[in-house]
Amino acid sequence: MIDFDLKGKVAVTCKDRFAPYLEQELQDLGFRPKYVGRTHMELFASLNDCIFLNLHLRTASHVLYEIKTLYLHKADDIYRRIKALPWEDYLDPDTYFSVISHVDNETVNNPLFVNVRIKDAIVDRFREKFGKRPNSGSSLDGAVIQMFWKEQQATLYINTSGETLAKHGYRKIPGHAPMLEALASATILASDWDQNSPFINPMCGAGTLAIEAALMATQRFPGLFRDHYGFMYVKGFSEEIYQKIRKKMEDKVIDRPGLRIIASDISEQAVLFARENAGIAGVEDLIDFEVCDFEETTVPQDAGGVVFFNPEYGERLGEEGDLGDTYKRMGDFLKQRCASYSGYIFTGNMALAKRVGLRTSRRIEFYNGTIDCRLLKYELFKGKKEI
Predict the structure, then answer these.
(1) In this structure, are residues 165 and 182 in contact, taking their beta carbons and an 8 Å threshold?
(2) Is the dihedral of CA 66, 68, 71, 73 positive or negative?
(3) Is residue 327 classed exposed, middle or buried when 0-12, 13-18 and 19+ CB atoms within 10 A define those classes?
(4) How many CA atoms does the CB half-sphere of 186 hold within 13 Å?
(5) Is the Cα torsion angle 30, 216, 16, 180 positive or negative in sign?
(6) I want to staple 264 with a disulfide (CB 3.0 to 4.6 A). Which of 116, 226, 290, 387 is the partner?
(7) Does the CA dihedral 65-218-209-277 come out positive or negative?
(8) pLDDT digits (tens, 9 = 90+) for 162-187
(9) Can you tell me the distance from the alpha carbon of 201 to that of 296, in angstroms, rounded to the nearest whole number?
(10) pLDDT tens digit string along 13-35?
(11) Residue 374: CA atoms inside 13 Å, Cβ hemisphere, count?
């Protein structure tokens, strides 16, 4: 049985280009990464720390606790080396488990082969030691073993998350081409919104941006909406400790009297979906929903804050069509209605972005799936900006 207080190497993974925002989250939570890469950070932490991180992180994908780093020269080495490890310290014989691998080795042309060999090695060790074997499969609803193998170095982890953390669990109605919750969180963090001033979200769709803004401002963390993780199937897991960590997380929720979050969409159905998602997240009362064209969205004057658009951009949702006119109208709206605000447009189509007609002060790189995107920032002033 592994000691959940024993500190070891932990890797926290994220989508490409999320690293600055994940690092910010970790530091805000009191962790100092030892290494920061494009898609992961490395920490020195315990499995109980991993429980805490799983419940609190908004921009992460998985939290991985290292079991062992091995030197594997070829595919034939996998079974022998994996079987020699003390898997009975990590899993009970009747625990369901799955295996994920990421492989870059010249002797392997099918990563599924690696998964099967790891499973076979673990199962055979249990069968020989206990006369019974754990069940295994591809679903991530039990214990999850993960391997990263590059050239001759392979590292085995317990994936303490199981299913990805990038989906926060409250969005039951995704709507049309929704923004992933972790991406919404990362872009809000990139906007430097102060969580006190107004957050205006025209074209809100399923409401993900407005909901994530409300969750951040009131310190509601993703663990509020999920009760199933990979760490629960690791030998030594304490339900009591988990509930204590969860209770402390629940106690962090704060009120934000006077906070204005406004979300609008021309589609009545989209606003209905957004309201339902916000209700599940417990923040419906914190968001003012409006059914209207984006040009009619309420913008509190002289309040400052953030206006955030996530419009269609053609490549994902069909032909560009009339989107050029829409982008021009967004630029006019920002210029004419949003003086003193910071304007943001998230798009994967820079040709359309030129139609906005405003000078960007920042272009922040993101991916939306495989689409190369930019979060464009516009500083908005009354009249003409003095140079």
Answers:
(1) yes
(2) negative
(3) buried
(4) 29
(5) positive
(6) 290
(7) positive
(8) 999 999 999 887 767 679 999 999 99
(9) 12
(10) 999 999 999 999 999 999 999 99
(11) 13
Decide if 109 contacts 151 (C-beta within 8 A): no
* In contact, 305 and 200? CB cutoff 8 Å: yes
At residue 28, what is the residue type? Answer: D
- Provide the token pair at 147: 């391997």
Inter-CA distances, 111 with 73, 103, 149, 280, 317, Å: 15, 6, 10, 38, 32
User: How open is the CA angle 139-145-149, to the nearest 5 degrees?
Assistant: 115
Distance of CA 250 to the CA centre of its chain: 20
- Would you say residue 385 has pLDDT above 80? no
- Looking at residue 93, the DSSP 8-state letter turns out to be T
Residue type at 359? R
Both tokens of residue 67? 């079991």
Tokens of 243: 């509930």
Q: Could you give the CA distance from residue 297 to residue 305 in angstroms, rounded to a whole number?
A: 15
Q: Given the DSSP bridges, would you call strands 261-265 and 287-291 parallel, antiparallel or unpaired? A: parallel
> Phi-psi bin for 195: left (phi > 0), alpha (psi -120 to 50), beta?
left
Question: Which has the higher per-residue pLDDT, 109 or 96?
Answer: 96
d(CA 134, CA 123): 6
- Asked if 72 and 117 touch (Cβ cutoff 8 Å), the reply is no
Provide the CB-side half-sphere exposure for 330 (13 A, CA): 30
User: Are the C-beta atoms of residues 83 and 176 closer than 8 Å to each other?
Assistant: no
**Token pair 């447009």 in the structure block, residue:** 345
